[in-house]
Specification:
heterotrimer, A mainly alpha (296), B mainly alpha (320), C alpha/beta (332), B: 320 residues, mainly alpha, C: 332 residues, Rossmann fold, 8-stranded mixed β-sheet, 13 strands
């Protein structure tokens, strides 16, 4: 069957529409996207979804297991901890803090990183080499160490841990963007744009950014994963949220001593972290593959 | 080749200089012991003290920080090395299979495993691993490097080597004991390393398989296995090593977290305890030691890369 | 005897805009021991035909043909193993941009050693010691045969240190190591300067004369292959429009496209007036998603009429095959 007749109207989609069309065809990625939207809804509206307030203690129902084991009370869906607080509510609150914190960090790092990375890539001369050497030095320090040091300097609290993690992830993102833009700058069409008299901003907007969507998606994905892991690790080590705030990492720390009595208290927050990371990874892998196929 | 070496040493000096600036800022901000002098002379004193090897004394146990730091860090290195060997042995073949049989069932399984491995939070897996042997009924030690019965003189900090040095006293018991202690923490670290290696290998092999000279090898009539072993592997190696070098700092941070969970005496526990007890002097030393190590190993890996692959001899800045 | 006989080869490709028939009933008939040129502009599908014949195409291409015979062997019925054996021994290809087709991490000597005939690689362990020198000798002879004088230097270098001309000669050396019956040259000289082009063409001519290697030369430049080839086929947008012997085509071109091609060969005599326009067909090559129905030259052809919307059939005038509704027939 040949489609060789030009009498049909041809509907050629714009690149973005085409990418979206390919993305819709990937079932797993679309499921992941709906899951992310669901999680975002949960974390925004978690105060209304919680069956009990997260710090309310029920002294008569301590250390209950989840509803599928025996001896459980179905009101507390996933059981309670040693002070009688409902695990499900604490889990929801923890998801809110961790997820929104990580999203905030990713957002800030992306915007700042793109600005700094683009200026670094387009700069030449002495200022550029100073910035590059500074970046090199910052990159050799492990991110956890930077976050630790910054927290020590700023004082321990949840907001400070967010700031510390963003500052420690910023060099990684800048390095990634810098390499991408460098690779793009070597291509011929940038030279053509320059010969046309494009200013730097125009060069970025029309020449470079449409072509680095794919590495950009990969970078954002990595930053998000690292952000979540670092927030929870800092919470686990006790440097992040204090005892009032419920963050998934600190949930695990507090329940560590009770592990043999009620392992669920450690399992559920960890599972929640794992699920968040995996769903986001699947989603961004789907987007990345759609972009690659769409530009083919 | 010699030019390249010179360029790298120049970069090393500059980066080391910036690192000392950072370490100095931290010390200046946390430990205000020199009120009277202004910052510049303080900095000069600091640099001269470092060059003489005097990093200060820890408040807690009054021992020189440098010595404790180096020993602690070498335990961390040991853990990383062991995990790296395990991860390579398992991960590289899996990655090669995933790359060759792309979009097959095997590829999907391996990639799903890699994806799961990358998404698990480090400390959670460490906790699970520390209670798992109990669930299975095995008795595996989860504390420390070696059981306290053995007294090992600290020669190199690498317990694997030190235990071999005291064979007259303990035969190989100390060595075996240490190995058993090592297995659990390094398996946890190996999971992450393995996932990274699988992903990188698969990507590198896919890129190489699409290139022109592999098509030319097809037209020469070589079998698939010959093509893989002769051409693909050697050409896929440089990008993998390059990426791993960039991930080195992440691996060390994961190792430190694992040490804290398993109470393995390494840099992680050392830092954690010091910070909790308020001894902030160790921070700047820790930065210098750890980043200095990462810098040196980056340069060595770069030299290795230049040696293996004749085409990568052009970059100027350290992160390319 | 026809070495390669391809009839009605069609390739369909699935793209974003639907299924496109990129090669439409192409015919190719290569006589043993001759140099056959397949001339067409860039993007007309020459490389696709070569790849389809060898089986190097992507899996999502749909290749159909009435006949695809190499000598007595039916290429469409072969399994991939047998095809691979044939590719190593009977057919060899050289490509455009030869440097990217050499392994960048190996020296030339190692790569050439791979393609040496198997009887030189010894099974016996003791003979393996002396095999190295026989290999060296064989490689040296091959390199001399293609015109590389300093074989030791070339052999010890990596591909990125050599120029394109030498890389192409090395590729030709690797291709003829096994004395293939058919050598397919896919635009071998497109990115080189004129001196190297002349050297490569001279080399191919010599191979054809001395070793009776049949050569299928794909090119986009009519002028450069005109002294060289015995038979010429022209292809436009995936359709073979004319094919025949060199004399037939040069002296009596029947298809409008061929006539245009010949007129564009620059001959610097005084007949051309100062500042006159060079001869071209109006319009440009249609993009792949807007291919014309029937004869694809239709919109640009000076002789096009209404019947040209149907696909013309191939008519054979004493070996001069042409697919056109309105050929220029002059009886000689």
């Amino acid at each position: 069957m040949l489609i060789n007749n030009e009498f049909n109207e041809q509907k050629i989609q714009s690149p973005l529409q085409y990418i979206w069309h390919i993305f819709k065809g990937k079932n797993i990625a679309v499921i992941a996207m709906w899951a992310i939207i669901a999680m975002l809804m949960i974390s925004i509206f978690c105060d209304y979804l919680m069956p009990f307030p997260h710090s309310q203690q029920h002294p008569d129902m301590l250390l209950l297991p989840p509803y599928w084991s025996d001896g459980a009370n179905p009101i507390h869906l996933l059981g309670t901890d040693d002070l009688g607080r409902d695990t499900f509510s604490r889990l929801l609150k923890g998801i809110q803090l961790t997820l929104m914190g990580a999203l905030l960090i990713t957002f800030i790092v992306s915007i700042l990183g793109v600005i700094v990375g683009a200026t670094a890539a387009l700069m030449k001369g002495f200022k550029a080499s100073i910035m590059h050497h500074l970046l090199d030095a910052l990159l050799t320090i492990p991110t956890l160490l930077t976050a630790l040091i910054l927290i020590v300097l700023f004082g321990m609290s949840y907001e400070n841990s967010l700031i510390a993690v963003s500052l420690s992830l910023l060099p990684q993102f800048i390095r990634g963007i810098y390499i991408c833009i460098e690779n793009e700058l070597q291509k011929q069409h940038i030279i053509a744009l320059r010969l046309d008299g494009a200013t730097n901003l125009r060069l970025l907007r029309y020449g470079i950014f449409p072509n680095i969507i794919e590495p950009f998606v990969t970078l954002v994905n990595r930053i998000f994963t690292m952000a979540i892991l670092e927030i929870t690790t800092l919470g686990f080590l006790g440097f992040g949220a204090n005892s009032e705030q419920v963050e998934l990492g600190s949930l695990i720390t507090k329940s560590l001593e009770l592990f043999y009595l009620s392992p669920y208290l450690v399992l559920f927050p960890g599972l929640a972290i794992f699920l968040i990371i995996i769903i986001f990874n699947i989603f961004s892998e789907g987007v990345r593959h759609s972009v690659i196929e769409g530009e083919d | 080749m010699f030019n390249y070496l010179l360029r790298r040493i120049y970069l090393l000096c500059i980066t080391a200089f910036v690192l000392t600036l950072i370490a100095f800022t931290i010390e200046h901000l946390t430990v205000h012991t020199h009120f009277r002098e202004n910052t510049f002379t303080h900095y000069l004193n600091y640099i001269s003290a470092i060059l003489q090897g005097d990093f200060g004394y820890s408040i807690i146990d009054k021992k020189p920080i440098l010595a404790t730091g180096l020993i602690a860090f070498s335990s961390t290195l040991e853990l990383c090395l062991f995990a790296f060997i395990i991860a390579c042995i398992v991960g590289v073949p899996l990655g090669i299979f995933a790359g060759l049989y792309r979009n097959n069932g095997l590829d999907y399984t391996i990639m799903s495993l890699a994806l799961i491995g990358l998404a698990l939070p480090v400390f959670w897996v460490a906790i699970i691993f520390s209670v798992l042997p109990n669930a299975f009924g095995w008795a595996m030690p989860i504390d420390g490097n070696i059981s306290p019965i053995y007294e090992i003189p600290v020669v190199s900090g690498f317990l694997l080597i030190d235990t071999l040095l005291v064979t007259q006293q303990y035969q190989f018991d100390a060595f075996l004991n240490h190995m058993i202690h090592l297995i659990l923490p390094s398996s946890v670290l190996a999971i992450f390393l393995m996932s990274e290696i699988i992903r990188l290998t698969r990507h590198a092999i896919t890129m190489v398989m699409r290139s022109n000279y592999i098509k030319a090898a097809h037209t020469k009539g070589l079998t698939r296995r010959q093509i893989v072993f002769r051409h693909v592997l050697k050409n896929a190696l440089p990008p993998i090593i390059h990426q791993l070098r960039l991930q080195l700092s992440t691996i060390i941070s994961f190792a430190m977290v694992i040490e804290i969970v398993f109470s393995y005496q390494g840099a992680g526990i050392w830092l954690f305890d010091s910070i909790q007890q308020g001894d902030y002097l160790v921070l700047s030393t820790a930065i210098l030691i750890i980043s200095g190590f990462i810098l040196f190993s980056s340069i060595i890996i770069d030299l290795l890369l230049v040696f293996i692959s004749p085409t990568k001899r052009k970059s100027l800045y350290a992160d390319q | 005897m026809a070495l390669l006989d391809v009839r009605n080869l069609s390739i369909d490709i699935n793209t974003a805009q639907g299924k496109i028939r990129v090669i439409d009933k192409a015919n190719l008939n290569i006589v043993d021991g001759s140099i056959h040129s397949l001339v067409g502009e860039s993007g007309s599908g020459k490389s696709l035909i070569a790849k389809a014949v060898l089986g190097l195409h992507n899996e999502n291409w749909i290749v159909t043909a009435d006949r695809m015979f190499l000598g007595n062997i039916d290429l469409m019925k072969l399994s991939s193993r047998e095809r691979r054996k044939i590719m190593g021994k009977e057919i060899a290809i050289i490509f455009q941009n030869p440097r990217s087709y050499l392994d960048p991490s190996k020296k030339i000597v190692d790569q050439m050693r791979e393609v040496l005939p198997k009887k030189l690689s010894a099974k016996h362990f003791l003979k393996k010691m002396t095999a190295k020198s026989t290999h060296q000798q064989a490689i040296k002879e091959l390199l001399h045969k293609v015109g590389v004088q300093n074989d030791r230097d070339v052999g010890n270098s990596y591909p990125h240190e050599l120029s394109e001309g030498i890389c192409q000669k090395v590729m030709i050396a690797m291709a003829i190591a096994n004395n293939p019956r058919l050598l397919i040259a896919d635009e071998p000289t497109t990115s080189m300067e004129a001196v190297t082009q002349a050297q490569i063409f001279r080399l191919l001519f010599k191979l054809n004369q001395l070793h009776n290697t049949t050569i299928l030369l794909l090119s986009n430049n009519f002028g450069s292959i005109s002294n060289l080839s015995d038979y010429i086929s022209l292809i436009y947008c995936g359709q073979t429009v004319e094919s025949g012997s060199y004399k037939q085509i040069i002296n009596s071109p029947m298809h409008p496209y061929t006539q245009t091609m010949i007129k564009t060969i620059l001959e610097f005599d005084e007949n051309i007036a100062h500042k006159s326009q060079l001869y071209t067909l109006p319009g440009s090559i249609p993009p792949a998603n807007q291919l014309p129905i029937g004869c694809r030259l239709g919109p640009r052809c000076p002789k096009a009429q209404r019947t040209c919307v149907t696909n013309p059939e191939a008519v054979n005038y004493k070996g001069h095959i042409i697919r056109c509704h309105f050929p220029t027939l002059d009886e000689k």
